[in-house]
Design a protein that fits this description.
The structure holds two protein chains of two kinds. By secondary structure, chain A is α+β, with helices and mostly antiparallel strands. Chain A has four helices and seven strands; from the N terminus they run αααββαβββββ. Helix content of chain A is 24%, strand content 38%. The longest helix of chain A is centred in the N-terminal third of the chain and has 19 residues. The longest helix of chain B has 15 residues. The two termini of chain B are 14 Å apart. In chain B, 33% of the residues lie in helices and 24% in strands. Chain B is of the alpha+beta class. Chain B is globular, with a radius of gyration of 23 Å. The chains are: A alpha+beta, B alpha+beta. The interface between A and B is large, with 43 and 53 residues.
Chain lengths: 173, 442
Amino acid sequence: MSPPDADAMSGASVSAETRDAIDTLLQREAALLDERRYEDWLALYAADAWYWVPHRPGQTSPRDEVSLFYDDRMLMETRVRRLMTAIAHAETPRTRTSRVVSRAAVAPSAEAGCDFVAAAKFVMIEYRLNGQHLYGGTSHFGIRRAGDGFAIAWKRVDLVNAEGTHEPMSVPF
Amino acid sequence: MTIIPRPAAASELRQLVRPDRVHRSVYADPAIFALEMERIFGRAWLFVGHESQVAKPGDFYCTRLGRQPVIMVRGGDGAVRVLHNRCTHRGAEVCTEEKGSARHFRCGYHGWTFGTDGRLVSVPRKEGYDAAFDGETKALGLAPVARMDAYRGFVFASLAADGTALLDFLGPVKLSFDDFVDRAPDGEIEVAGGIFKHYYEGNWKLYIENVNDLMHPRYVHESSIDTASRQSRDAATDGAGDIAVRQMIQNGVLAQIWDRVGVWALPNGHSYMGDYHDDKRLLGDNADPVFAAYRRALEARHGPARAKEILGVSLFNTIVYPNLTFMSQFRQLRVIHPLSAGRTEVHVLSFRLKGAPERMFHDTVRFANAINSPASQILTDDLEIYRRIRDGLANEAPEWLHIGRGAGRDRADGPATVGDHGTSEIHIRNQFQSWLDYMVNP
């Protein structure tokens, strides 16, 4: 489960229309997180999706190493519903975020359940209780055709400081 | 030498701890913190790491003792040493990676080179020194910590040359380490799967007071208990969500169940609590073929009677005062590193039981993610409470915190004292007795 490198993401033949549609999907994915529209965010993901933030660069599996986040669909649901409650201490008051996501590189994927793989850089500013934190890294997405559009089959977020000592994290990247 | 004025007199320090109260300054005062670093972290046996982290000659692991950076390294002679990570020439750290394998440590400043046993093996252009320097080099190796020892693979060190032996310091809490290791069918455990590291805004003591505080889960973890209880079990899971949701739900057991869980206070500030889990997927269920295979492996090594005895030990958190806490049954270990009175760093290690089916380790990873990740839906609510305590204690009045739940109702139980009920604050009072012992006896 290593992410593809830049070469693998560049020379591939994907139609401009598909690439733009996936890029729009990923911009929307980020915007929904910033707007805390978590149910809408979940709706972009497939019913068997997973969301992964490895604990170190180059981590190849979420099974035999710990992860900052490794949420299967069940845990994605629990996580965002907890964020929407009014009783989570870590989210009282709430975290506010603003993120900038680069234009996505898109390549076809031979992986089962995935038609494309997309990569985008991001920078996220997180604010809560007079504390502002800066996160950044690269996200990879598995993209699946779904009806007339696309669903996100998986998301892997490689933070530049993955293996560092972290402040408590509440919201997905 | 100290530059911070502080209440170093024993009589002043004694006034900070009462049978059912503790003064705010023990959490909030930088002068008290400085004294703790000297008198507690400068003397107690502190956990360094596990021998499996340096399995082969040359393997090293960099960590801290209190606030001092040290290297745990296995030398070419096979011996594990704990060395101060500081060049004896101009003071630079000589090892900058967290872990790895090295043939030697070469200082980046002037090339002084140290063996993995700490000896100074070369100094470039030695002719720049007098001939007498050759005689000095023996004393210029990387400084070993004052004392080190290990119990069943757990390496401890003390920054003080004198003091009780490790085994005496541990006392009856040894049983909890035994429980940890005995569960491995091959009789050995190993650190595996990576180390979580996170900060929190609060005093180091809050963490070890909280882990055996059985009154807090229902309140602190209400959001995850509530959400997990409502989670549809039809949602897709590869095991990660299943384990995490089960653990979140378990934190919501009834108050009566928490009160039936024992909390045992032990000498030297240590303590452990019984277990409150009744979820068989988390505990291990004979109907599960993986757990059944594990049980057979344990029986093959020890015989059915001893295996039953090993699996019959039911402990959740163990605390080794001042800054180690672990879960033998769930194979998690946390080291609390104080940074200042109001800021702390925590490292979390996971362990593999050698000889157990690999899926048991996958479950350990899932459990670690659920409860110990910096993004844990459980842990982050604890950390927010520590922050609120730090900010609340900026108030100079009221001066006292209350630690009297169950006070006066403790009972002797062999070498331990057991709280009258599971939600007794006995372990906090016990920690402060040790705190005073360290602080008033310089």
